[in-house]
Amino acid sequence: MIERPESAVASIAQRNLEGYVGFANLPNQVYRKSVKRGFEFTLMVVGESGLGKSTLINSLFLTDLYSKDYPGPSLRIKKTVQVEQSKVLVKEGGVQLTLTIVDTPGFGDAVDNSNCWQPVINYIDSKCEDFLNAESRVNRRLMPDNRVHCCLYFIAPSGHGLKPLDIEFMKRLHDKVNVIPLIAKADTLTPEECQLFKKQIMKEIQEHKIQIYEFPDIEDDEDSKLIRKIKERMPLAVVGSNVVIEVNGRKVRGRQYPWGVAEVENGEHCDFTVLRNMLIRTHMQDLKDVTNNVHYENYRSRKLAAVTCNGGVDTSKTKNQMTRSPLAQMEEERREHVMKMKKMETEMEQVFEMKVKEKKQKLKDSEAELERRHEQMKKNLEAQYKELEEKKRHHEEEKSNWEAQQRILEQQKLDASKTMEKNKKKGKIF
Amino acid sequence: LLKCDGEGARAVPLAGHVGFDSMPDQLVNKSVNHGFCFNILCVGETGLGKSTLMDTLFNTKFEGEPTQHNQPGVQLKSNTYELQESNVRLKLTVVNTVGFGDQINKEDSYKSIVEFIDTQFEAYLQEELKIKRTLHSYHDTRIHACLYFIAPTGHSLKSLDLVTMKKLDSKVNIIPIIAKSDAISKSELTKFKIKITSELVSNGVQIYQFPTDDETVAEINSTMNGHLPFAVVGSTEEVKIGNKMVKARQYPWGTVQVENENHCDFVKLREMLIRVNMEDLREQTHTRHYELYRRCKLEEMGFKDTDPDCKPFSLQETYEAKRNEFMGDLQKKEEEMRQMFVQRVKEKEAELKEAEKELHEKFDRLKKLHQDEKKKLEDKKKSLDDELNGFKQKKTAAELLQSQAQQAGGSTTLKRDKERKK
């Protein structure tokens, strides 16, 4: 007898350990395996030409992503918005990272920029689609994750506020990808101007209900204070540089001006270090997680709902369907259909039986009727037979009586004639 | 199932410390915050010390009373516990087979185990296929490791063991262990292990091999692979040895120390199962066993990756095709049923008509008989009537004659009578 196994989620009990078991080593195992596997990250940069996007990337990753041999898109003239990706492999401290930089040359550069965000959206969606298809295959192999994990949006340092294009773009992309707005070429703003600019931008972002990526709090109390401080600095104002300059004996990346050097990695000059620390050193994994758990899932459920619910008209039914996989949905429908068929079958069966019964009854009745009639006729015939017999018997009786009588008469006659003869002889008769 | 292929990527040097070498730490932090989950299935006959071994491995007292031998079938009982060690939280589920090996007919013993494992896979698959899903917060109940307890007979595996392990080896990571191994001497143990290993090999049973692809642990793993199956002893009782309290079993002839590697392989088991390869066991379950289940299930349902022209299907196409097929299938079934009924009605009608015909024939026959009888009767009547008439005639004729005769000879008689009277 095989019993149904119990669910494991039923109840969870706490247990204290009396001694070292060793699963505290699990994180090390995870560490080891992740290093072996390597990491990947896709970063998208969006903004008008000349805002220093390529320079910033080079500064962030301390490499010449775009060099003489691999010129960046900015050096090429574009008529329409292109989406280009460059893939590089970088290694540090035994950790391997496959970095994909997605550039959008031509963005915002045309006279009419309507829909210039569309190629960007298409790119992001197509990467999600690739992942979805890979994930949905029957034979799944190891899947590379080419989805866009982060989108740095470069705001021109006008000092006033967001441009309509900025707002439009962020509104359209904030539910598809992690958007981090940056103030580009921040070395053209004084600290006060920068402050005002940042305030204005955040105000507008809130007004338009744009959901930019929020660096989540880390558990540690100390760090969380730090994070709050950093959040106050949003959006980050950055400066990038490909050039290393010597300042007071130190070698720094910076921009040399007649009036001084704007240092890229100086926290008082710009927010570059904040960006780098957040983007690479502390929140890279979280950016990937949010992409996977939120943005991709949204894409997926939208895509699958369209396929299976066929544009669900009945919203209540659709909601129910959403919590099931399409296959479970079909299973459910199949079950319903089986029940419906069973019901139909019983009904048809009933009707069938009834009709048969009716007909059989009719047949029986007609049989009984015929039987009865036949009985009747038989009885009738028998009665006639009896009558006939009676008549015959009567006649026989009469006949035999009469015959007997006749014989007596005959005998008498014979006797009489005999007597006459006798008398004659005796002479008595004349 | 993510893999980082550096394909199409060119390597570039870094001019300084960027900082992404913290990625493994970021990942680890995330995992630690999220908590870990591990599910162990213990398969073995009643009384082989499964529960005791779990308690010993995890240094705690899990649920359960010792079970009796009178179970009618094999049941799986699972319990989930939350354990914590330093900052690592572990949701541990221990599943026990109750009643395994107790029945007279053990043919179906493995079935409930396979069913249980499949059920967990199915639950995960369903979640994965949902339209709105929450995979990252899903409580994974899939079995990551199956400890198969071998009875310490010292001879060989039982046929139940071989049959069961063969059914499980493509579904779960099997780690066979020799239970209650304090009943076997060292020399017997070596022979026993060799016998077991060769029997497993000759029967094609795939047991879990500790992975040797990662240099950091390749050496220790490959050494340990050579010690399989581990001969273990479990105990939660403590005995004082020297000036320490150790887990042990006390016999009149000596004390078996659980954590003494000369006495048994408990330490090896703990090392391999928990401290070195726990994560690999989880990974293998997900990337190998679960994928196999998923692939089989989807293929069973008719999903394919490419159409007959070998062009890849998109998910949309696949689902739509599936749906159409499904609907068509339902309609066909409905139509079939209708047809069947129409057929039955026809047959029944024919049957009844036949019966009706027979009835009429019967009565026609009877009618004919009746006609015949009637005719006979008529004939008889007629002959009787003829006879009656004949008789009547005869009678009238005779009477006439008599009356004539009487008239003629009546006077003679009278005279005679008169004379007589005188």
Automatic annotation (TrEMBL), chain A:
GO terms for molecular function: GTP binding. Keywords: Cell cycle, Cell division, Cell projection, Centromere, Chromosome, Cilium, Coiled coil, Cytoplasm, Cytoskeleton, GTP-binding, Kinetochore, Mitosis, Nucleotide-binding. Residues 386-430 are annotated as: Disordered. It is found in: Chromosome, Centromere, Kinetochore; Cleavage furrow; Cytoplasm, Cytoskeleton, Cilium axoneme; Cytoplasm, Cytoskeleton, Spindle. Residues 386-401, 410-422 have a biased composition (Basic and acidic residues). GO terms for biological process: cell division. Coiled coil: none annotated. It comes from the Eukaryota. GO terms for cellular component: axoneme; cleavage furrow; kinetochore; midbody; septin complex; spindle. InterPro entries: G_SEPTIN_dom (IPR030379), P-loop_NTPase (IPR027417), Septin (IPR016491), Septin7 (IPR008115). Belongs to the TRAFAC class TrmE-Era-EngA-EngB-Septin-like GTPase superfamily. Septin GTPase family. This is Septin.
From TrEMBL, chain B:
Residues 395-422 are annotated as: Disordered. Keywords: Coiled coil, GTP-binding, Nucleotide-binding. Residues 34-300 form the Septin-type G domain. It holds the Pfam family Septin. One of its GO terms (molecular function) is GTP binding. Belongs to the TRAFAC class TrmE-Era-EngA-EngB-Septin-like GTPase superfamily. Septin GTPase family. This is Septin.
